[in-house]
Write a structure and sequence with these properties.
With 567 residues, the chain is α+β, with helices and mostly antiparallel strands. It has a single domain, classed as Cytochrome P450 (Cytochrome p450). It is built from 24 helices and 14 strands. It has a five-stranded mixed beta sheet with strand order 1-2-10-7-3, with helices on both faces. It has a three-stranded antiparallel beta sheet with strand order 4-14-11. Strand 8 and strand 9 form a beta hairpin. Helix 10 packs antiparallel against helix 11, helix 16 crosses helix 18 and helix 18 packs across helix 21. The longest helix is centred in the middle third of the chain and has 32 residues. GO terms for molecular function: heme binding; iron ion binding; monooxygenase activity; oxidoreductase activity, acting on paired donors, with incorporation or reduction of molecular oxygen. Belongs to the cytochrome P450 family. Pfam families: p450 (PF00067). Keywords: Heme, Iron, Metal-binding, Monooxygenase, Oxidoreductase.
Length: 567
């Protein structure tokens, strides 16, 4: 994201701010100097370019192997920061002492620009108020109610892929192809967007059928265009945001003439326009517009309806404002389609790489179909959940994909007060001492490396970098570290974060992934292409697949897709 606040406020002011900040942080930095870490590239950049311009996890894995699961690195102007991938430390930050850890205020301004003042942006008591209102919309029953929507959308997607593979039925002059190269993100993103539009608004986006749909165009390659491949100047700007007070960052994000920020603002305007057309406000009370702004009748079961009903049951002091309500929809739209679509794309990529895994999974799925899974009525949600939960290899594949390819690869935190972070494995200090806890000053900026934790060899074993779904079928449940602390919401993974800021929609996301993988692997066979073998895991707020040397084409993961043979 090419953000240039230091250019706009002037080099002299930035230099002055940097000098003041450098002086004020000297004590804090010296108190962390005993923690080992990589050599700084320069005083101006620190190690920031290595983190922001490499592929997801590249430096995390290298530094973790060299310095341990808690290490020190340099931000611009010499500031010491920490990178953490130790499970006990993560448990402490997200669970044991979670109220002491907050998002850096400048990071919150990025989320406010992208999503508005919703739950992703909210902090402390505001976050608790948001979460209390939103919780009823994300229960088990709500997740199950979406199964017919998942299946209907998958049916449309598989029909389109089958037509592409079979060729034009009216074309009698050419033999239909036996397979086609299909760019997975292009299609799965659209399918996922259709699902989240219906689930969030009760609104038919039609992205699978209409390539020019307003919301579909708004979201296509949004994070890549806004955040990917930052220039050197952009990297420095991001690293310097902490020099400015949050109010100044907010002003710049709202007014700076920048292509990446303009892209984010445009998406936000489109989503808010759709949401506003679906909501009316009378006498200070939110209510559904039953005409849906001319876009169909309100069904009453979508997230917006559930939120409005939940909000109405709260007292005035605990209700969400109209702006906050609309921001929740923006948040759900973003989090509910981009991350799920990327995870499914990476799952099919791994199955294409490992044909024996694909065959084993297809055999398990077809055995379930032979036992009657295909005969389950779409409205019998409980029966469908029992089917997908009873497939150990399918769930092992999903867990392994989420472990190897965490779409949310970094989470930033800082303590409100001085704290002591415990470690599950001691680290060696620069003086050669072994320590099992680290004292950190208030305000220390921390990158919790989800990518690093998910490849931590002490946790997952010496083959932590290997795609091996079978690890989840072992008695250890994938974990190799005895007594490893429990972290995250699911399978000791941090895919859905942890603690009171964890992903509220994780059950919905998991059920959607299970259903997609079940149907797609049953019907299609996936193989690698030369382009797929040059996959690049691009950091752009969330991780996106790209092809090395073709970054101008946006998200890409082209696989050879054919109809899966049947006996």
């Amino acid at each position: 994201m090419a953000i240039l606040p230091f250019v706009l406020v002037g080099p002299a002011l930035c230099a002055a701010l940097a000098a003041l900040y450098y002086a004020s942080r000297r004590r804090a930095r010296s108190s962390l100097a005993y923690i080992r870490g990589p050599t700084s590239e320069s005083f101006l950049f620190g190690n920031y370019r290595q983190i922001r311009r490499g592929q997801v996890g590249e430096v995390d894995f290298e530094w973790q192997d060299r310095y341990g699961a808690l290490l020190r690195f340099k931000a611009p102007f010499g500031e010491d920061r920490l990178m953490v991938s130790d499970p006990k430390a993560i448990q402490h930050i997200f669970q044991t002492n979670q109220t002491n850890y907050t998002q850096p205020p400048q990071d919150r301004e990025v989320l406010r620009t992208l999503l508005g003042p919703g739950i992703a942006w909210a902090d402390a008591d505001t976050h608790r108020r948001h979460r209390k209102v939103m919780t009823p919309a994300f229960g088990v029953a709500q997740a199950k109610s979406l199964i017919p929507l998942f299946k209907a959308t998958i049916g449309r997607l598989t029909s389109k892929w089958s037509d592409m593979i079979s060729g034009d039925a009216d074309d009698t002059c050419h033999q239909p192809p036996s397979s086609r190269v299909i760019n997975l993100p292009q299609w799965i993103n659209r399918a996922s967007l259709d699902i989240i539009g219906e689930a969030a608004f009760g609104y038919d986006i039609g992205a699978l059928d209409d390539l020019d749909s307003e919301l579909g165009k708004a979201y296509e390659n949004m994070t890549l265009e806004a955040f990917a491949l930052p220039t050197t100047l952009g990297v420095l700007a991001q690293g310097c945001m902490h020099l400015l007070p949050p109010a100044a960052v907010r002003f710049l994000f709202d007014h700076i003439p920048n292509r990446g920020l303009d892209r984010l603002r445009g998406v936000k305007r489109v989503v808010e326009h759709v949401a506003e057309s679906l909501v009316t406000e009378e006498k200070g009370v939110h209510g559904l517009d039953t005409t849906r702004g001319g876009m169909g009748k309100a069904k009453g079961g979508d997230l917006l309806s559930l939120l409005i009903n939940a909000n109405a049951s709260h007292t005035e002091g605990s209700k969400l404002s109209r702006e906050e309500m609309l921001a929740q929809i923006s948040t759900v739209m973003f989090a509910g389609h981009d991350t799920t679509a990327a995870t499914l794309s990476f799952a099919l990529y791994e199955l294409a790489k490992h044909q024996e895994c694909q065959t084993r999974l297809r055999d398990e799925i077809r055995a379930a179909i032979a036992r009657g899974a295909a005969d389950i009525d779409d409205t019998d949600a409980d029966a469908w959940v029992r089917v997908v939960e009873s497939l150990p290899y399918l769930n092992g594949v999903l867990k392994e994909v989420m472990r190897l390819h965490p779409v949310g690869y970094h989470i930033n935190r800082q303590p409100r007060t001085d704290d002591v972070i415990p470690l599950s494995k001691p680290i060696v200090t620069s003086e050669g001492r072994q320590i099992s806890e680290v004292v950190i000053p208030a305000g220390t900026k921390i990158i919790v490396s989800i990518a690093g934790y998910h490849r931590n060899k002490d946790v997952w074993g010496p083959d932590a970098h290997v795609f091996r779904p079978e690890r989840w079928l072992e008695e250890s449940g994938g974990l190799q570290m005895k007594g490893s602390p429990g972290v995250g919401m699911y399978a000791n993974l941090m895919t859905f974060s942890g603690g009171f800021r964890s992903c509220m929609g994780w059950r919905i996301a998991l059920l959607e992934l299970q259903t997609f993988l079940f149907d797609l692997v049953d019907q299609f066979h996936f193989g690698l292409t030369k382009d797929a073998m040059r996959l690049r895991r691009e950091p752009c707020l969330v991780m996106a697949p790209m092809v090395e040397g073709q970054t101008d084409k946006g998200a890409q993961l082209p696989l050879q897709v054919s109809i899966a043979p049947r006996d």
